[in-house]
Amino acid sequence: SEEEINSPEFNPDDFAPAPENDGAQSVDESLENKRNSLVFAFIATVLALIICFSGWGVVAAVEKYENKGLEKNVLSVFDNCDRIEKYAKDMQGYDVYAVFFKNKMAGYVVMGSTEGFGGEISFAVAFNSQNMIAKIKVFEHNESIGLGSQISKDTFLSQFKGLLIGNTAVGYDLIAGATTSSKTLGDAIVEILGLGLSTNSIANELGYETISEEEIEEEI
């Protein structure tokens, strides 16, 4: 009442409203937001690591599969050998792999590709321990059936067998009706002969002994 207000005993603080706890509430909300941010950051980091390691696993699996396919192709040109080791990558456009029989180097294989009449021709040339061509194999080509496709036949490839490394003055017979295909592959083989490779020098660089075809046959 008015009398109580005017009384000397009146204390306005007794009737003041309780102060709101805005400061404490703001601190709690801030801590909660920080906690949520940390949890979110932790979850995001874990997910990123999972994705990263999953991707690495896929890449590793693909590389392993590709390496197995490569090893199979290289060994298909060398009888009785059991493993390969990369010697040179992209040597004038060709890849060179040492080939082993019971941890002794039996020779090397040059993997390459060239452009034929119908597209890319991928092939391999195998050299024995005497640095002579032991075998040539065409893996893929898009040459015409019956003509250009003869580049993958032994009737064409056998003329290069026995050629010694360094013999770049060699002549060879082209396939009638498929001169572009046969000349392209033939020229690539002659180019490989001029790379100056050697079984002994490769074996020395890699730290292995060599083994001849005759010695392999004796052990078999």
In short:
The chain is α+β, with helices and mostly antiparallel strands. It is built from six helices and five strands, in the order ααβββββαααα.
Write the layout of secondary structure elements.
Blueprint: H1 2-6, H2 22-75, E1 83-91, E2 94-101, E3 104-115, E4 120-128, E5 133-140, H3 154-157, H4 179-193, H5 199-206, H6 213-219
Antiparallel strand pairs: 1-2, 2-3, 3-4, 4-5
Describe this structure in words.
- There is one protein chain.
- By secondary structure, this protein is an alpha+beta fold.
- Helices cover 42% and strands 21% of the residues.
- It has a 5-stranded antiparallel beta sheet, with helices on both faces.
- The chain is elongated.
- The termini are far apart.
Largest sheet properties = 5 strands, antiparallel
Q: Tell me, what's the shape?
A: elongated
Radius of gyration: 38 Å
Largest sheet, spatial ordering of strands: 1-2-3-4-5
Number of H/I helices: 6
Helix content: 40-55%
Low-confidence stretches: 57-66
Number of strands: 5
Mean residue pLDDT: 82
- Strand/helix succession: HHEEEEEHHHH
Termini separation: 122 Å
Secondary structure category: alpha+beta
Taken as a percent bin, the fraction of beta residues is 15-25%
Which structural traits does this protein have?
220 residues; alpha+beta; 5-stranded antiparallel beta sheet; 6 helices; 5 strands; 42% helix
